[in-house]
Design brief:
By secondary structure, the protein is α/β, with parallel strands linked by helices. It has two domains: about 100 residues, Translation factors (Elongation Factor Tu (Ef-tu), domain 3, Beta Barrel); about 150 residues, 3-Layer(aba) Sandwich (Rossmann fold), CATH 3.40.50.80. It has eight helices and eleven strands. The strands form two sheets. Strands 4-3-6-1-2-5 form a six-stranded antiparallel beta sheet. Strands 9-8-7-10-11 form a five-stranded parallel beta sheet, with helices on both faces. Strand 10, helix 8 and strand 11 form a beta-alpha-beta unit. The longest helix has 13 residues. It is globular and about 55 Å long. About 40% of the residues are buried. The structure holds flavin-adenine dinucleotide. The site of flavin-adenine dinucleotide has 23 residues, from strand 4, strand 5 and strand 11.
Length: about 270
């Protein structure tokens, strides 16, 4: 059945062959960032860290964009963390959604930021900038991550302190969660940094790796392919520069078909 969308702006028929889900909750952080939760279709299976194509009917046409699922694979709802691009074909509309509205989702998730694409290790680094934290929001809430790794380090770099709030809220949620709190214990370390304001950790993650400050601050040894695994999600430049540093430390890039020591995914195209 094609469910009619609720608001007038989206009041058109839903295309066949896609899920049409109901928005449950929306939280705005800044004029550039928000998060929303929506119903999860019964048949929708994904691995924590994967992305799906999310869409809205705009006029009589659906517009889809890739979105990392930010909620973990066990969650009954789906969560997404989104940018607001002022004239963006999708997000200029998506940023206006309200509980009760309909969001479209294509049926097949995919992605390389999954635990299966990494060989076993001790310490897992998740390097993110901006909305690149989204796949890691999923993985840090998945018990499997802590079965596979003794230590999980999430770095999140943004321009301004206000843009870090989603990450801080995640940490708080995990600390207070009925079963995750115990599973995660002190295995998860959060390392937020900003580049354009004063803050307790300042600078680009690549500079913090190069100088060794990241490791000193965390009290861990420098990157080591024997023990350390990495996942990177950010802009094309951030991926290129961080990847080069991991390769310099002796880690090799993996994929679903060929697990290795680190994996990467672009947080957006452009
Ligand atoms: C694998 C993958 C996963 C993604 N996951 C997410 C996600 O979880 N959350 C999310 O908000 N976006 C994510 N994106 C980006 C998303 O697909 C869209 O680009 C974004 O929603 C903007 O859509 P738009 O149609 O409004 O503008 P678009 O026409 O898609 O983008 C316009 C311009 O805005 C900039 N831009 C787009 N997305 C971002 C972003 N996330 N951060 C900073 N600048 C951006 C780029 O310069 C881009 O050229 C992902 C992209 C890829 C490839």
């Amino acid at each position: 059945m094609n469910a009619p969308a609720k608001t007038e702006e989206f009041a058109v028929k839903i295309p066949d062959g896609v899920y049409a889900e109901t928005v449950l909750d929306v939280e705005h952080y800044t004029d550039r960032l928000f998060r929303f939760r929506m119903t999860r279709p019964a048949g929708f299976r994904f691995r924590s860290g994967e992305f799906a194509m999310i869409g809205l009917m705009v006029g009589d046409k659906p517009i889809y964009r890739a979105y990392s699922v930010a909620s973990p694979a066990w969650d009954e709802e789906l969560e997404f963390f989104s940018i607001k691009v002022p004239d963006g074909p999708l997000t200029s509309h998506l940023q206006k959604i309200q509980p009760g509205d309909i969001v479209l989702m294509r049926k097949k998730p995919t992605g390389t930021l999954v635990l299966d694409a990494l060989t076993p290790g001790k310490r897992l680094y998740m390097f993110s900038t901006g909305t690149g934290i989204a796949p890691f929001a999923s993985l840090i809430r998945d018990p499997e991550t802590y079965e596979k790794f003794d230590e999980v380090i999430l770095t999140h770099t943004c321009r301004e302190v206000a843009e870090l709030k989603y990450g801080f809220d995640l940490m708080e949620e995990i600390r207070n969660h009925e079963f995750l709190a115990e599973i995660v214990g002190d295995k998860l370390k959060h390392y937020p940094t900003v580049t354009r304001e004063e803050f307790w950790h300042k600078g680009r993650i690549t500079d913090l790796i190069t100088s060794g400050k990241l490791f000193t601050d965390l009290g861990v040894p420098p990157l080591d392919p024997e023990t350390d695994r990495g996942m990177i999600c950010g802009s094309s430049d951030m991926l290129k520069d961080t990847k080069a540093l991991l390769e310099k430390a002796g880690l090799t890039e993996g994929a679903n078909s060929k697990p290795a020591e680190f994996v990467i995914e672009r947080a957006f195209v452009g």
